[in-house]
## 1
Amino acid sequence: MGQGSTQAASAAVCTPATPAEVRAMIRDGYTGYTGGKAPGYVQANICILPKDYAEEFLLFCQRNPAPCPLLERADQGSYRLPRLGKEIDIRTDLPRYHVFRDGVFCEEVTDIRDLWSNELVTFALGCSFSFEEALREAGLPMRFMDRGGVAGVYQTDIETQPAGRFHAKLVVTMRPFAPADAIRAIQVTSRFPNVHGAPVHIGDPAAIGVDLSRRYRDVGSDEILPYELPLFWACGLTPQLAVANAKPPLCITHAPSSMLVTDIRNASLASF
Amino acid sequence: MGQGSTQAASAAVCTPATPAEVRAMIRDGYTGYTGGKAPGYVQANICILPKDYAEEFLLFCQRNPAPCPLLERADQGSYRLPRLGKEIDIRTDLPRYHVFRDGVFCEEVTDIRDLWSNELVTFALGCSFSFEEALREAGLPMRFMDRGGVAGVYQTDIETQPAGRFHAKLVVTMRPFAPADAIRAIQVTSRFPNVHGAPVHIGDPAAIGVDLSRRYRDVGSDEILPYELPLFWACGLTPQLAVANAKPPLCITHAPSSMLVTDIRNASLASF
């Protein structure tokens, strides 16, 4: 992970890369964002838990598919995800990882080989990058993306369906659109139930307990123009909040915008 | 059309009838609404024009599929619509007709055999009854229907695409929904592009030039509860407005809520 390889990685940013090339770049030391890398391919949220928490988390995902669209669960102890990419090694193939102990964030690392054990179970969840690509391809403007930013994130007062020790208020992302674009955005994202799907709410933020000026962890843009409506999508930070509540002794997730780049095409997830 | 046949028609209202039975009932003198008759089957707006206006009207429909979803155009002079129902006779199979001369409403009649000529061309257009059935089946509440009423109708300031002498501001229907139901309503109606499809607008009425207190021809309900959003769909009264502007010497349409009941199933129009 020396300076040389980081420069090589930066150079690779300029040209579209295959998912395998992006993962190799990350294994070689790239520690930046994955947004925009390997365009057209699904990027996944990652949540790694001790086996004693795996069944309950699986059930939490099953009961809350909008915030927790499960793409894959690895075999216990396996750092492979062959259905998402043949040579994936989840211990090295994310640019940065967040480590939580007893539900509390401890450190950010770029490799988890030291932390790995046969007790761990890896979950890969769909993420909004996929539907944002579809929105962009549909010509729907998202100003925050033009500025290199991300959608505003908010905690709602909507309780998800609990499963054992896992429970959380729904976390959402907000994207504002002019009315006709809002209708189109609902159509476009409805095609992608495996990556959060349609919005869960449109219009008045207070109806779901949201104050737009109070973003979750200060993430993203809260700008809405006078003629726009805010649309709210279920967000993959919901399961991280559920992990904070469940307080497993160890949990490892991707760092924000530092996802697993898979071999699955975004378009292959479209339901019609 | 004596009292006897009207009572027979009223009795038939209580049991689901086939489209052919409903048309026979109408031919036999029923002059009421067709809403709720032959559930599951498409009902069509009808517009009958002199041949000199037929090509321009066809083009107007082609350019404005949301308000003018064309299901069928009969051959010139033919009162048959075999693709919508084998024995249909458009001169007798609507409960009531509206007759316009030079674009101005003249009279309501229950039979147009006297007015028929080989110069006339019949157009059948999809109507919102089909998607309202889909909304109702999806469990989306519409209070105006529970009260036997219809959706509020409004003229917008949106100009449709003109074709020859036909031009009109877009007319819309308004249905209010709670936010999550509004998202679902967009999904459900998106499946039915042949019967107006998805809404054209959501939220602020003024953005499309609508004042909710000023309904078009005083038709329908304008009630919106505080937590609801108004959704606006393109409406089949738009082509009638275009006819008023084109001023053909003769035009015959269905009377409001007195449609052609066809043999086409609503579900067969669903695009996915």
Note: DSSP finds seven helices and eleven strands in chain B.
## 2
Amino acid sequence: METNLQFRLAARPVGMVKDSDWQQTEEPLRPLADGEIRVQVLYLSLDPAMRGWMNEGKSYIRPVAIGEVMRAGGVGVVAESRSPKFAAGDYVSGGTGVQRYWTGPADDKSASFHKIDPKLAPLTTYLNTLGMPGMTAYFGLTESGQPKAGETVVVSGAAGAVGQTVGQVAKQLGCRVVGIAGGKEKCDFVVRELGFDACIDYKNESVRDGLRQHCPQGVDVYFDNVGGDILDTVLTRINLKARIVICGAISQYNNTTPVQGPSNYLSLLVNRARMEGIVVFDYADRYHLGIAQLGRWMAEGKIKSKEDVVHGLENFPTALNMLFEGKNFGKLVLQVAAP
Amino acid sequence: METNLQFRLAARPVGMVKDSDWQQTEEPLRPLADGEIRVQVLYLSLDPAMRGWMNEGKSYIRPVAIGEVMRAGGVGVVAESRSPKFAAGDYVSGGTGVQRYWTGPADDKSASFHKIDPKLAPLTTYLNTLGMPGMTAYFGLTESGQPKAGETVVVSGAAGAVGQTVGQVAKQLGCRVVGIAGGKEKCDFVVRELGFDACIDYKNESVRDGLRQHCPQGVDVYFDNVGGDILDTVLTRINLKARIVICGAISQYNNTTPVQGPSNYLSLLVNRARMEGIVVFDYADRYHLGIAQLGRWMAEGKIKSKEDVVHGLENFPTALNMLFEGKNFGKLVLQVAAP
């Protein structure tokens, strides 16, 4: 049997993650103890949040320790099992970490493996619409954003993992949906393929002018994945009682200077508006409801799923940085082995 | 009869308001038309919000026009009446503007005069706890802050008009209350006289250390009147599901550079917390309920009211700037005539 290959955190990055922040290790695969399983990782989810997990300090989840295998969600196939919970050949989703094989107790809390069905949806969908990004989008939008039919919803990172589902769910709820994304290709995609009403290409257009043009009734819900100047600009266009969902701030994650606070936050006061932070884990007891609803919409062809697959575990460092350079187009997934 | 003396807006201020931004005008008092009243102004309310009204641009209320009498709330006595709504000698509260006499229709919408009873409470109280600051504090805290017994509430501008009532109401609701104010005298006052649990003197102490010391259980509700560094520091100490009420940002109102956005706003994400803006006018249909509750607590000696009275309409420009220099101690009121 082959050995395990792992990416471990070697140093806490300053700014963009460098190759030297990672350590590649190779280990023999140890025999299973009773109750344990071995999962062969097929696909890894690459998420902006991973950059935050590499930092020290209090957050919604403990930081990855120096020397620890980098945390990541993934899907895989059970290669061996000494647990009644899973059989060899089962497809599973869970916290595999950035490695070829995950080995441990079948009921490990932090890995939290559960079976998935490759006949219902492609495996990568379980890392996207039917995975964490989908749950983030579905619950964050409906519970914190609370869009009502006829309202205008704006979402940044519109072609990304979370943004694509936010916009499509908002369309299903009867909203006018305007995306913000980088580049003509992404903008064309969310409008033509995903059915957004419009998309502002922040790399080539003025976001301010775009909002004025495409949100003639103002902005009722803004789902923010990026922070920085875009958040500040949207704040100038919000309506009375608007809801801003703070899901992420990818523009700020590699800052070596302090985070750029929203200079226009007093628009919250003028408009009696609200800005609220969300973390997907809070909805864990209702994931099954979100998966059921999104699965239904997908089966009906009402919601599409777009993944950007990079091949080869060895390309993990380069692939992760694509997120912060806006180079991925759709949910970024790293294929570790052929399914 | 004497003439009317008025302060009109001469220019839109840049930074701190200068004497040249005002024009003093003197006019004869015209005879009343049918349905009109003349109110002799006794006390004027000086509020941080007035600085915002002097700026151009969209806000929750239209800007004061150049040449217009400066907007202000006041209490006065009806000097003459040709309306059945008010009799000469009635005490009233409403939008008098910065002048000696207000003359116009008894049912003028923007002035919105209503009778007050000087036997129930001192006249100045109707510009403080039983007026707009009291309503702002009461409804902003209870409706947006939603404090629960046992939670920790922090309020900045603690000795100011809104802050003093926020803290006292939170104490009545069973919360631990920590104020932030400038100077030992103000801090001693809110603790000893108003019954706050603690007060941090931001001019002489580290706010960060003070919060660590006085909020050992973290911060559940932060009622923000000041913005700037203090908001940013409190953001580092908030609890899961904390509520931040954005009532004002007095530290930023005279900026000639962009407003300082809260650099630590991603603490909202980490803590699934909320930041919401409030404007008192939204609660206008329930002011009577707020006045009844605050009046009851005042009558029972559970809530105190502290005003800082400056004398003489001619001192209006200097008095207004006291707010932005932190020089007032309690709700700032300008006495225009002896009651």
Note: The interface with chain B takes residues 58-60, 227, 232, 246-249, 252, 258-279, 282 of chain A (CB under 8 Å).
## 3
Amino acid sequence: MQSKKIKVGIVGGTGYTGVELLRLLAQHPDVELSVITSRGEAGLPVADMFPSLRGRVSLVFTDPSQADLTLCDVVFFATPHGVAMSQAQALVAAGVKVIDLAADFRLQDITVFEKWYKLPHSCPDILANAVYGLPELYREQVRSAQVIGNPGCYPTTVLLGLAPLLEQGLVDLSIPIVSDSKSGVSGAGRKAEVATLFAEASDNMKAYGVSGHRHHPEIQEQLRQLSGVAPQFIFVPHLIPMIRGMLSTMYVKLTPEGLKTDIQALYETRYQREPFVDVLPPGSLPETRTVRGGNHLRLALYPQAETGYLTIIVVQDNLVKGAAGQAVQNMNIMFDLDERTGLEVVPLLP
Amino acid sequence: MQSKKIKVGIVGGTGYTGVELLRLLAQHPDVELSVITSRGEAGLPVADMFPSLRGRVSLVFTDPSQADLTLCDVVFFATPHGVAMSQAQALVAAGVKVIDLAADFRLQDITVFEKWYKLPHSCPDILANAVYGLPELYREQVRSAQVIGNPGCYPTTVLLGLAPLLEQGLVDLSIPIVSDSKSGVSGAGRKAEVATLFAEASDNMKAYGVSGHRHHPEIQEQLRQLSGVAPQFIFVPHLIPMIRGMLSTMYVKLTPEGLKTDIQALYETRYQREPFVDVLPPGSLPETRTVRGGNHLRLALYPQAETGYLTIIVVQDNLVKGAAGQAVQNMNIMFDLDERTGLEVVPLLP
Amino acid sequence: MQSKKIKVGIVGGTGYTGVELLRLLAQHPDVELSVITSRGEAGLPVADMFPSLRGRVSLVFTDPSQADLTLCDVVFFATPHGVAMSQAQALVAAGVKVIDLAADFRLQDITVFEKWYKLPHSCPDILANAVYGLPELYREQVRSAQVIGNPGCYPTTVLLGLAPLLEQGLVDLSIPIVSDSKSGVSGAGRKAEVATLFAEASDNMKAYGVSGHRHHPEIQEQLRQLSGVAPQFIFVPHLIPMIRGMLSTMYVKLTPEGLKTDIQALYETRYQREPFVDVLPPGSLPETRTVRGGNHLRLALYPQAETGYLTIIVVQDNLVKGAAGQAVQNMNIMFDLDERTGLEVVPLLP
Amino acid sequence: MQSKKIKVGIVGGTGYTGVELLRLLAQHPDVELSVITSRGEAGLPVADMFPSLRGRVSLVFTDPSQADLTLCDVVFFATPHGVAMSQAQALVAAGVKVIDLAADFRLQDITVFEKWYKLPHSCPDILANAVYGLPELYREQVRSAQVIGNPGCYPTTVLLGLAPLLEQGLVDLSIPIVSDSKSGVSGAGRKAEVATLFAEASDNMKAYGVSGHRHHPEIQEQLRQLSGVAPQFIFVPHLIPMIRGMLSTMYVKLTPEGLKTDIQALYETRYQREPFVDVLPPGSLPETRTVRGGNHLRLALYPQAETGYLTIIVVQDNLVKGAAGQAVQNMNIMFDLDERTGLEVVPLLP
């Protein structure tokens, strides 16, 4: 446990992952919010933009050019892709830890990064040492990391949903793994766009990114890590008329060995010491609202006896375990705090 | 009944009143959709933007500079304020009827118009002959009008909710009339704005325009017409997380004469021949969904015995009776059709 | 075209499929609504329960014991499973046509029916002659049918989404077909239940029926018809916070022949004369709101080059093409009307 | 500060106020959840009914007949009206404090209680000593109370919205006070009812209780306390398609003295030491989501210069400050804890 507070900086706090970081960090006992930058909103008190923070956050947005982030212990980037990598070098040089909630440090394969994000990567050496911040898979690496690529929301559900099987080699990889995923609209961010207006997105649903979504290569790179091969993977995300919440329904064919395994026990054992992964009892039907505002990911398992398939359903709050909560979890690990610190908010139901 | 079809032009068909006009006119037996203009979308088939119209509307958006609107019998303006008045002169000169769904021809008092809309009025002579298109109050004038200022959505609910009382002088005008009004989010239009994003407007509500809303002077001008004096009027609109629907709750103090009157009978008599005004039985609680997609306005009356007040609740679909449906109703009157033609769609419930 | 109107009876008009039938039939030019029964609501005007029908439907609910349904030309059953089969014998004997919107006449295999619906089938002889009312597959049989089992909502999306492939033998049936389906909450009916309360189902989603849903055997029986074999089929339905709307995302492996086929052209050709099936252009992303209130089913196709799979996305309004609209479409065919009569309502968007 | 934890019992924990109490108390550092009763669910782990509490609440529902509530320090009743008064006598005799979230101890006038709740009051002597648990008005009485009648949700907004004016006599009481109030659907409770189904209440709104709502007499009794007279009061509640959230828009006529007063300063001064009342800066538009899940009530003031009226808008979370949060606030006061203990959850936005 720390004796003094962690000085935290946030770059880009006007989006949904930004305000979510503020919500969680404002309740974190070991954190001092030092600086938050925004080019467009410099001078505005944060609580004027997000009145939910009135009385809890007294920071004012600072112009990036005026902010000395090297005085922080850790800086979170809640920015579009490309921002974190442009500032990482200076921060790393100053000994500041970096947690990027965008994609700059998620993909180790630079060619893939540049293809999907249409940006040259400006600091491949830092990337090479960056850690993919999924604590349930890489806790030890996170502990000593200087730079974290915080996972995408969809990848978190898919990877934690599949890891116990892939680690044991129980999936028949001659058949594609399918993840049919569904996200609340906050996942699209706080950008003014017609497609996510209330009158467009409410009482309506659709698939999107069917021919290619940026989380596809991220998931594939990690599936390769987990399985040792490059599995075929079909990924279809859908936009659902709810603010928060993400649910992935995965369909995998088990190997003969997998068919003989007690899958429920396997998952329970694998995750028994994980504070934020909850394996539900057999027959449960996970609902997204059971994690609304909380950092838990809950999952359930349904063997399909007739086909030899396993259906796996995973839920999380896309803004918490899928973004800001996971980032705080990573910070806790990096600063040797109890991993749950500041993250024990009970989900809001109803 | 016409032997040949009415040639209709629409200026600005990419917003919600535009697509709603298209929905209604596509089902109208006496209309031929001739042209629809859009600067930004020229060349795009309308049904590509609004796939609900696939197979029903084959028009392509035309650049305004390429469209000869003078070949139409009537032109609807589903545009921002200021567009209709810039084109009205030429259309009127060519004998084309004009129905403006924005505010250019709603307010007879030009000073008030210019104060609230921050625009000089470019054709005061046409305005002087324009008719406020609320058929239940001005049907005869609509019949012979060349230019219609189609009423605002809130004013339609307030004026039809109060007309029977004001026409009979039954309201104590020494006390302000209060209208606490609520609108679905489509009323804010199809503009990309943060405030009306799903993740902002859903599971949330707020008042807006409390210190002044453009429908306030419009309502006041009409209240003056109805009552012969300028009544005090307090108007607070609210944004409600539903796509369509508008509900106004009005609070008025009755005169001693009003207190002796059978108000229910008064309203039923006043509106008995109106095809689109439905006075509900005593004790009813109007729901917005009972008019979803339909051109009806439904209302109910609640005398407050202890206070001598009357509470009036009015519902409509803001995009139909509050905008596009009323515009088509006006067109039907202007072209001597049965007023209900093309407007007999049964509301969608649930 | 008929010279006189079709006399229609509805048994059980207090649920969502009932009010939806009323909405459509009230706008149908060749129909006379003769009688609607309800045990619980006898004596109540239908429009008192559903004020959206005020001025359009003047029927009063009749107690079943007082209603002589044999005077009708056709009777729709919008009732729980088991009701239609208890009355079908008498109606058939009287020459009345029957369209059951529940499951009594959907499954030809009585053993399967009795297993899933926990009811003995009371008129297997009538079932043997009943027709599965999916016009796009069985139009000729519908034309001469006396009794129609109107398809379930999910099966309509799955079967029309797969038919062109299965008819041509282009699916590799050694691999299970997966349908990940999503439904609006109205699909659960108008029963008072905690799980579908607004405060439970809003801003939330979940899967249900993962271990077995009644539409599974219905789909499997029809897949067998289409393919000649009994394909493996995995079906996971989900509950989505929208009133209406259904979207099925299907994942199938193509045969080598299928991989060489122009799938888009295959579907366009197969459905080119179908008034209610709309094959969207390549790259389209179907939204449920584009069919809200309309009888269209729209679909799009996404070949997954790397895996040899095809993803198929289908949308419909679960209460229209998925229930009442399809029932009216069947009626139109049975009475030799233009199939589109009364069903040309333009969907409500937004 | 206590050295040992407060033993808490909850009677009736299966509704929304019950689960909300559990959410808040599970995060309260000075509370030990001892027992929760439910007749219908005895034996069921609470977290099986509400999986959001998994890992946080290990209690199992106990049958009321098996629960010895006299071992508790305080018992919360989250039950229908009539339950608390049937058990209060025994608990009070045993020295247990009682906080009733229903109406049994809200109205001092028994005649009014019996008229509106259709129940004889079974313990008028306890009622006479019960305190109306609105801390901002009755903090000292709460401190020493044995039995608390926790205020209704609507009354909390109306009374805190009006108190500063009425305490100073600045409202012209010859004119009725109007409160046009709006509530999210969770206010209707977790009962299986058709009217609050998702498919009924979503994308829809309505007024209800226009001719009489049980919160009307409760508000009037308190207005009398505040003003010394019995002001006329018009109250119209509305049902809004959101889960949580309440907004009251109030219209009052100011006295000449009131018109000369700096109303903003008056409210800021009145509430400056209140931890849970937030007077927003002039021109603010309170949104319900800014208090979602939090115990704050926020308000804004709009003088209507032309009419001499003041419009007051108040928002709260109906389940927190309007119910369970306020109950915990009362408990904190009764047990001499910092009033904010366990209530510092930052609201969930978006």
Note: Chain A has a mean pLDDT of 96.
